[in-house]
Predict the structure.
Amino acid sequence: MAGKKAAKRSRRKTSEPTLYPNSPLAEVVFEIRFPGEPAVECRRDDFFALVRQDFPKVWVPNIEAGQAVALQSYHFKSEDDKETLMVAINRFAYAT
């Protein structure tokens, strides 16, 4: 039991991230890829309704000739542009 309590204490949440002056990372992206799911394309508005409070800015991709619309990611950005959710028919990503 003591080990579990110690582990819980070490996983504390902080309100502000720690900024290091010589950080080697400028951006971190976590992406999940999966087989194409048509429901994603049809329900992007539902997804936006769920995340709108934290990600109010929407970037809709420009489509060039020959590109599949469903494979292009919509980007939902935080007000300060520091966080982004990217959603496409076959992937989901979070960037910070």
